[in-house]
Amino acid sequence: MPAANPETRATRIGVVAPASRLDPALAEKVSALAAARYPDGPDGTVELVFHPQCFLLSGHFAGEDAARAAAFLEVANDPGVDAVWFARGGYGSGRIAEEALPRLEPAARAKCYLGYSDVGSLLAGLYAQGFPHLAHGPMPSDIRREGGEAAVARALAWLVARDPGSLEANVAAGTKSAAFNITILSHLLGTPLQPDLAGHVLMLEETEEQMYRIDRALFHITSNPGIRAAAGIRLGRCGDILPNDPDFVLGEEEVVTHWCAKSGIPYLGRADIGHDAANKVVPFGDGPPDGAR
Question: Which sequence spans correspond to the domains of the chain?
């Protein structure tokens, strides 16, 4: 089956889990939702193909490093797959990125890749290699959240038809954007996975961290010369912040504005992204063409 134009429609979407395992019951729910929203029609059925690796379990991971890398490469290099949808975050993507990325073939470059959280390591590495169709946005595992069906539907709408209604409101034509989890971005800076984010509006979000850790990560991020060339930072939601003892006092916006002021990076306000069902899609690079929103 020939690959669809990534700017128009994905009809066959491959799902892989480069980090943590996906519950098979969640995959069934996502498949049912996709079948209901995209029944047979003149444009063909939207087919979700969950790689069996998604359901492996090896300690913390969805299979050993070699198994996760092999599954990612198999799906990414398959010319019959139109898009790669990462199943969930957790931890593990950075362990396979340097091994897997050099083994991607030309067919992999034409695909769209969608995910967030830990898979930001792979998205960063792909962007550093010039892959043009990447986005931070909901994953199949989000169906477990309250309101998660809406998040999954939003992701499918982006993958299938580049629905502008899926986009974060500040994504705009003529403006480069990128989005990451704060901890993941901090950890990949200075590694071969770090992309060129000069001139980008950088959207950042976090979950289940203490404020002092968020502060420390933002110190590291805003001290990086490559990040200091960004057009500005927008702060997404920092959910389920863990308690500090003693209380850190400062909140997430006070922390990010402090480090933006210290580093000279413009602080541009809030972004509608986060580890929740309201998480919107942020394509990497240039925004949609004029009139697409």
Answer: 12-166, 176-270
